[in-house]
Amino acid sequence: MNRQQDTINRLDKAKQSVRTGGKGSVRRKIKKQRKVPTTDDKKLQSTLKRIGVNTIPQIDEVTFFKDDGSVRIFKNPKVQAAVNSNTFVVTGQSEVKQLKDILPHLAKGLETAQGGGKDDDEVPDLTGINFEEIAKEQK
Q: Rounded to two decimals, what is the model's pTM?
């Protein structure tokens, strides 16, 4: 019986806290604010469409280097650009790593971009050739 009385007292206190006036007044209605995450995305997409961004396809990775030595890496991001307004949008899942952790990966990527570490023997020696004379002969 004591337990029921405690429950009734607790409910009475809660009932009094939601009243705006005295006894017999109407209880206030609490509206729950529902945040829909898609509304922010829709607003962003409409703003981007207004400035004229175009999607850039086939980008595998985007890397941002920060001043504090950390690196933010986006794998398979969606990249949009509006070159006339110098605006670039990168969206997708990202990871934050330290520069010292990804330095071997960067070195391998630079080596691949420079031709895979091939010797300079394949580049012909162009010193001592007068290109103006060759152009005159072809005319």
A: 0.50
Answer whether 81's CB lies under 8 Å from 88's CB.
Answer: yes
Half-sphere exposure of 11 toward its Cβ, with a 13 Å CA cutoff? 6
Residue given tokens 């990168």 in the structure block: 90
Element (H, E) at 113: helix 99-113
71 CB neighbour count, 10 Å cutoff: 19
E-strand stretches of the chain = 54-56, 61-65, 70-75, 78-82, 87-91, 94-98
DSSP state for residue 76 in the 8-state scheme: S
Instruction: Give the pLDDT confidence score for residue 132 in this predicted structure.
Output: 83
Q: Tally the residues of the chain.
A: 139
pLDDT tens digits for 100-134? 888 887 778 777 767 655 555 677 677 777 778 88
The answer to whether the CB of 20 falls within 8 A of the CB of 26 is yes
